[in-house]
Amino acid sequence: MIRHAVLFKFKPDFPSEQREAWTAGLDRMRGNVPGLLALTHGPDVIRSERAFDYAIVADFESVADIEVYNTHPLHEPLKKYSFPNSEQIISVDFEITKDAP
Known about the structure:
By secondary structure, the protein is of the alpha+beta class.
């Protein structure tokens, strides 16, 4: 299983209506993208100096499933909100065992 984690540092002027459309789009992907086993997301609650503003964590059966997700018709429109409204986006994809919590 592959865990895909993405962190976003938003620009201060990210319009709230676009942010709401973006998060609603994230919710629509659950159960609708082949190979996407789980997807959670939410804003940072600690707000420390080193913190990013938002995180997405998604689990996939394989690396090939992440490739499907990256170009899926439900994922593509979200890029028009996240890329122009972010100062920085970082990600990591790592393997987890089925025994891991």
